């Protein structure tokens, strides 16, 4: 499938997040969620960093610019997620 076709059929990221959260709440089966913000951010940050680093071909300066964070913050986050190869 071409990337153009995939792009047209892909849901916006917010819709994917909404769907995942709705499933999460249904799966709680009456239990009370805790620390949801930290959990969601923890789940999203790793693949975000990993994908941006691949897109930037390992160039941390470029990746930091894409993410809108400074390079030392990026290095810290890469280390936290064991992505500092």
UniProtKB/TrEMBL annotation:
<dbReference type="InterPro" id="IPR002197">
    <property type="entry name" value="HTH_Fis"/>
</dbReference>
<protein>
    <recommendedName>
        <fullName>Putative Fis-like DNA-binding protein</fullName>
    </recommendedName>
</protein>
<dbReference type="GO" id="GO:0043565">
    <property type="term" value="F:sequence-specific DNA binding"/>
</dbReference>
<dbReference type="Pfam" id="PF02954">
    <property type="entry name" value="HTH_8"/>
</dbReference>
<keyword id="KW-0238">DNA-binding</keyword>
<feature type="domain" description="DNA binding HTH">
    <location>
        <begin position="42"/>
        <end position="80"/>
    </location>
</feature>
<dbReference type="InterPro" id="IPR009057">
    <property type="entry name" value="Homeodomain-like_sf"/>
</dbReference>
<comment type="similarity">
    <text>Belongs to the transcriptional regulatory Fis family.</text>
</comment>
<dbReference type="GO" id="GO:0006355">
    <property type="term" value="P:regulation of DNA-templated transcription"/>
</dbReference>
<dbReference type="InterPro" id="IPR005412">
    <property type="entry name" value="Fis_DNA-bd"/>
</dbReference>
<dbReference type="InterPro" id="IPR050207">
    <property type="entry name" value="Trans_regulatory_Fis"/>
</dbReference>
